[in-house]
Amino acid sequence: MNYQNILEEIQEEIKPFLEEGALADYIPALENVNGNDFAMSIITLNGEEFHIGCSDKNFSIQSISKVFTFTLALQNYGRKLYERVGHEPSGDPFNSLVQLEYENGIPRNPFINAGAIVTTDRLISIYKDNTFHEVLKFIKNASNYNTIGYDEEIFKSELSHGFMNLALINMMKSFKNIDNETNRVIETYFKQCSILMTTKQLAHAMLFLANHGVNPLTNEVLVSESKAKRINSVMLTCGHYDASGDFAYRVGLPGKSGVGGGIVAIVPKKMAICVYSPKLNKQGNSLVGTKALELFTTKTGLSIF
Ligand code: GLN
């Protein structure tokens, strides 16, 4: 299959959709991007790379960071993690408060905000003040890129506008589902969201999930085969919040989006993909990114279904 040709076709076919959608504006610093940017990267298990568009441009990974924190928390706690966070789809928006009260402060899954805040709290209980450093170290190691960092302006912007997240963490604290000090947890969570990466780096960082937990380029085991299976299944069922069903229907791959406009997707035993286009659909997922992945699985037949 000529993946480079397929990427070129996709770049042409998504052009009309670049007009649609809107940038995330509830975090003001996320609006400082070019709304028409588009990039897509594919890395196969044998290390072949295919890229189109601005694949070397940094963007804010936002909720894609939840894949890394879930992986680290699962590595450390195993099944015990599920005493604090579930693995069922929520059917609600990423920052919804409603379900959390009915369900006694236990978030439905680690890919909605409440769930990722809980996994960050779990990590702080182990790594203390080194938590952000450990998350970044995991990402650098998984991607094999040493220069990855976070954006201070986006971090500060979210810190001063993240009202829903403050509500979520305070509610969970009142249900005793947050052990550490709320400011410390929320700051670490926001810092993780403000990590900057390119589509090329993110596709590299996700390769272990396409290969039973082992980075195929370094042979390093990042997580057990069984845990890699679980992470992929939670990505498939929960990775796009209340649009997870729609993403599975249209794309048919485990995937995780972020409000920065990135989406990662896994083709099991074959490749990792990352697409970037910052304008979002109503559920807060990249509109063109979803379209590009839909075109990809339609053209290649590489959906898991
Ligand atoms: N930092 C964002 C938030 O907490 C992440 C949300 C997302 O990417 N869906 O609101």
Number of domains: 1
User: Roughly what fraction of the amino acids lie in strands?
Assistant: 5-15%
CATH class: Alpha Beta
The main sheet comes to: 5 strands, antiparallel
Compute the average pLDDT: 98
Task: Compute the number of helices.
Answer: 13
| Anisotropy-based shape | globular
Radius of gyration equals: 18 Å
- Taken in chain order, the helices and strands follow as HEEEHHHHEHHHEHHHHEEEH
Total beta-strand segments: 8
Poorly predicted segments: none
What structural class should be given to the helix and strand makeup? Answer: alpha+beta
Ligand identities: glutamine
Q: How far apart, in Å, are the first and last alpha carbons?
A: 19 Å
Q: Any idea what the CATH superfamily is called?
A: DD-peptidase/beta-lactamase superfamily
CATH architecture: 3-Layer(aba) Sandwich
Tell me what you see in this structure.
This protein has about 300 residues and is α+β, with helices and mostly antiparallel strands. It has one domain (about 5-300): Beta-lactamase (3-Layer(aba) Sandwich), CATH 3.40.710. About 45% of the residues lie in helices and about 10% in strands. It has 13 helices and 8 strands. It has helices at about 5-15, 65-75, 100, 115-125, 130-145, 150-160, 165-175, 180-195, 200-205, 205-210, 225-240, 245-250, 285-300; strands spanning about 40-45, 50-55, 60, 150, 195, 255, 260-265, 270-275. Strands 2-1-8-7-6 form a 5-stranded antiparallel sheet. A 3-stranded antiparallel sheet has the order 3-5-4. The longest helix has 15 residues, at about 115-125. The protein starts with a helix and ends in a 5-residue tail after the last helix. The model has no long low-confidence stretch (mean pLDDT about 100). Bound molecules: glutamine (GLN). Glutamine (GLN) binds near residues 95, 158 and 259.
